[in-house]
Structures are given as C-alpha cells and as structure tokens.
Amino acid sequence: MRFVTQYVAAIDQGTTSTRCILFDHDGQLVASAGREHDQIFPRAGWVEHDATQIWSNTREVVAAALAKADVGASEIACVGITNQRETTVIWDRATGEPVYNAIVWQDTRTDRICRELAGDEGPARFQERTGLPLATYFAGPKARWILDEVDGARARAEKGELAFGTMDTWVLWNATGGPDGGLHLTDVTNASRTLLMDLETLTWDESLCEEIGVPAAMLPEIRSSSEVYGKVRAKGVLPGVPIAGILGDQQAATFGQACLEVGEAKNTYGTGNFVLLNTGGDIQRSEHGLITTVCYRLGDADAVYALEGSIAVTGSLVQWLRDNLGLIGSASEIEALASSVDDNGGAYFVPAFSGLFAPHWRSDARGAIVGLTRFVNKGHIARAVLEATAFQTREVIDAMNADSGVALTSLKVDGGMVANELLMQFQADLLGVPVIRPVVAETTALGAAYAAGLAVGFWSDPAEIRENWAQDKQWDPSMDDDERERLYGQWRKAVTRTFDWA
Predict the structure, then answer these.
(1) What is the pLDDT of residue 3?
(2) Under a CB-based contact definition with an 8 Å cutoff, are residues 18 and 12 in contact?
(3) Does 175 score more than 80 pLDDT?
C-alpha cells in the first residue's frame, strides 16, 4: 500500500549553498529552493562559514520549497539531511551561539597540528583505527584548533558546556529545538570523517580524542544513517515531521546513485570531486592513497564501507575563474569558452589551493599553471580548468583499480558539473570507459531522502531505490590510447611541480 503522505524533504547543506528538495515516491524532483551563504577567507588557506547564517538559510529554503510545491507539513513523510562532511562548528549548548565560525573542509590552518600529531610515525599514525591519514581535511584537528585558539573554549568544552558537530549535527540540533531540547546526534558516515571514530566499533575512541585534543564530553551521539532521530520542533517550518536520515554528502550521492552492491562506484562533480567504491561489509585498507570510510548503515543492519578518493578543488576552480579572474561571467559559460579551442594548448592547471588530497595527500602543494607559452589564450586556460577535474579523477580511479584489483568498467556521475558535455566526453576519453549520467542529477539530496524514507516505510526496501534509478545520457570514449596516455603523462609531470611549495 502506498504511503499516505506524498513527499520526502531533503535538506542538502553544501559547501556553497543550502537547498531543500522535495521528492515523490518515484524519486522524482517535485520542487527545490536554495540559497548561497558567504565564503569567508580571513587569510590564505583559511576558509570559514557563518553557521548562524546557514541555519537561517536552512529555514528559508525549506519554507520556499514547500511554497513552490504548494504543500504543507502534513504531506511530508519525513526529512533527510545531507551535508558538507568535515566542516566543523562548536557552539554553546545554552545559547546556541557558535564560539567561532565554522571551519570548512577545504581549510588548511591545521597543518601544524597535523604535523605535530603525526610525529615520527607520520600521517598514517591513526589510519588503522580511523581509515584516514592525518590531514587538514578532517574535522578533529579543526575542533582542536578552535579549542586552542578561542579563549576559555577548552575549559568550557571539558565541562560539557560546548557542543561539537559537523553541519548535519548543527542542522539537526537546531531543527529539533536548539537550546530547548535539541538533539545532539550525528550518523556513522559523518563521524567517520573526524579522525575520532573507530572504524570497526563505530564508536568514539577515547584514546584518539585524548591524543588529538578533543574532549569526549562535547561529541554527539553516533547513530545509523537511517532511523527516526526525532521530530522537527513545534515552531519549525515542518512541525512534528520526523527527521529520519543523515548521510554525509558523498555517501548520500552513492546511495542516491543506487551503488548498493560491492564494486559499484560513483563520482560526484561538485565543489570538489569524490569517487566512492562500495566494498560491502569489508573494511578495505588502501595502499594507494585512498581513504576507508563508512558508506552507510541502515538501522540495525551491519555497516557498509567504501574506498574513497577525495579531490579538493574541481567545481570551485570554475568559481575561482569566475570570481577571482573574471574570465567568465557565470559558471555555465566555461564550456563555450573551452570549446573555442581544440585542445589545452599545452597548458595544465593543477589546482592545489588546499594542498593535494587523494592519492597524494600533500599539504605542502599549492596551485600551478604549467606549460604556458605566448600561444595560450583564455580558451586554453578554460579548457585546462575543465581538464584538471578529469585528470584528478583519473588519478583516483587508477588508485581505486589498484586497491580493489578490479578495473572499473563504467562510471556513474552526478553533481553540478555533469551538465558540461565537453568535460564528460573528456572524462570518458581519459578513463577509457563509459561515463553515465542519471535522469535525476540531484543524487546527493535524493540519497538523504531515500535514507529517511526507508526509516519510516515510505520506501519498503533498497530494491525500490535501484528500480527508481534511470540513465539519462552516456558518453563513450573516442580518444586514441597513445594520446590518452600522453596527456595523462604530462598531467602527472605537472603535479610534481606543485610539491614542496608551502
């Protein structure tokens, strides 16, 4: 029997904006609303968000999505939350006020802390327990920095007066009451990005907390990715509606792409790029620069794990070209500009703005454009910007193939950049396998909706998710093998020019 209510709402709290999307039972987008928030750059390498602004935007976009669909709270079965994963906020439990701006996953200020923690053992010191290298990317060192730098914060945290969370926790706490009984919870996918959770027990590791310098008293309770956590507060836009799903954005996209079987992979093209390969119940350790993470956990079922290749700068490089250089007026203009030339003119752009993530993990790297001659024009630069995304994805896919021992046969893609036909064709050419885009490109929000809907019975089982998935377009490789490897070889040479800069 079909569920009485018609829709599931997904709150997608991303790096550049917050959106609310309503989905029907067929997984089709019914209405959406979004709003960008400020990107704060106090100094080179620092990236912050105003968490209070983000919560205000969240309420606005939920109301706007309901208004667009002309529906009320009674027609919403549940809410799912997905979020930029490692972005860290610490706030006062009594007032709800953050003690400092949220520190964004791209931020590199914790490099000194990470080097100090690594000591003689190196970046892999905690990797056996957490699946993660010691890197500025992850949340634990960001929390440590706030506690070290904000007067009185550490003492207050140890007393239990302050709360720590990634953005899912911040949204959930506020949505369920804030200082008036708000729930302080996170899910296993987000907890697995902190350097504080044991990957096998799925619990906070007290020794890790002590070594990294984050008091356990400030941590949220870890739950599954799909269960009823609580209800939206009475004064909220969706009063009484259960919040029933939480997934970090890349795990949500994996779920929304129906990568539910071992060996299935997806790549999300957003602010950064993130390739996830479902490894099932096995915790597969990487020997080629990838990280091991929790893919999802449905209720009381065993956790499903994934190998992940995280790339810091892809879509944000297009924004940089627009906002910092003014070469394009909008992100969508880059395809026409890049198509005005036949190739990159010998120019390669390595966007190591936040160092290099997988598979290099070089926090000392910084961005570089190499191969410049008088021949290169703005069309070549635009093309090099797009190609940088495909080259970085090739590096991660090669590492994934080496770790898994199974060569990828196709790649499911999603995210804002998949509308760029030139990029998608170049990606297929560079990988030598088909690239497949789904009908519903909003797979991150859809994955959060699925997790929530499964918890309340809106969808009966994961098989329905697979049935809802449908292909929109496929790009097949057409590049000569020798040319593919020549271009990739030049890219790999370009990457080495970014090392040892910072």
Answers:
(1) 54
(2) yes
(3) yes
CA gap 469, 288 in Å, rounded? 31
Which string of DSSP letters, residue by residue, matches 351-370? Answer: --BTBB-TTT-BTT---EEE
Q: Which residues contact 185 (CB under 8 A, 6 or more apart)?
A: 169, 172, 220, 221, 222, 223, 229, 246
φ/ψ of 127, rounded to 5, equals: -70, -35
- The Cα 297–Cα 263 span in angstroms is 17
Given a cut of 70, is residue 253 above it in pLDDT?
Answer: yes
CA dist 201 to 35, 85, 216, 228, Å?
37, 20, 16, 22
The residue written with tokens 């998608």 in the block is 424
Tell me the average pLDDT across 342-365: 91
Structure tokens at 172: 């959930």
24 to 29, 77, 461: CA distances (angstroms): 7, 10, 16
How far is it, in rounded angstroms, from Cα 279 to Cα 264?
8
d(CA 41, CA 112): 19
Q: What is the DSSP string of 265-313?
A: EEEEESSSEEEEEEEET--PPPSSS-EEEEEE-BTTSPPEEEEEEEES-
Task: Please state, in angstroms and rounded to a whole number, the distance separating the CA atoms of residues 172 and 80.
Answer: 10
Cβ atoms of 388 and 321 closer than 8 Å? no
d(CA 164, CA 190): 12
Q: Is the CB of residue 245 less than 8 Å from the CB of residue 80?
A: yes
In the chain, % helix, strand, coil (3-state, to 5) comes to 35, 25, 40
In the chain, how many H helices and how many E strands?
16, 23
Mean pLDDT, the chain, whole residue set: 93
CB 159 within 8 A of CB 217: yes
CB atoms within 10 A of CB 396: 25
Would you state the pLDDT for residue 408?
Answer: 79
Model confidence at 144: pLDDT above 60: yes
Q: Is 245 helix (H, G, I), strand (E, B) or coil?
A: strand
Rg for the chain (alpha carbons), in Å? 22
Q: Count CB neighbours of 324 within 10 A.
A: 8
Coil, strand or helix: which one is 181?
A: coil
Instruction: Please answer whether residues 11 and 171 qualify as being in contact, where contact means their C-beta atoms are separated by less than 8 angstroms.
Output: yes
At 45 the pLDDT is: 87
Q: CA nearest 317: which of 364, 355, 350?
A: 350
CA angle in degrees (0–180, nearest 5) for 396-398-403: 95
| Inter-CA distances, 169 with 172, 335, 477, Å | 5, 37, 42
Q: pLDDT band for 312, please (50, 70, 90 cuts).
A: confident
